[in-house]
Sequence to fold (97 residues):
Amino acid sequence: MKLKPLHDRVLVERVEQDEKTAGGIIIPDTAQEKPMEGKVIAVGSGARGEDGKITPLDVKAGDKVLFGKWSGTEVTIDGKELIIMKESDIMGIITKK
Fold:
């Protein structure tokens, strides 16, 4: 199944975090926080302004992004846990130096 977000919504897959701390302590699944990093899977066509024009989104499929802890709505598609959120819930795009 494919899902195309509407308007200014973005479909994101969480990026798994390391299970160890910097000191080497292994953190069990039950104690781990949900990661706030993800990979953009699909984006909508853009936000519609008051004048009726569509403004394209700044993020695109494949971008690695940082988002708020409680952002979006979690959905399961083909066994994958994904998040649908508005582009405004995304704090930034993570790039390599």
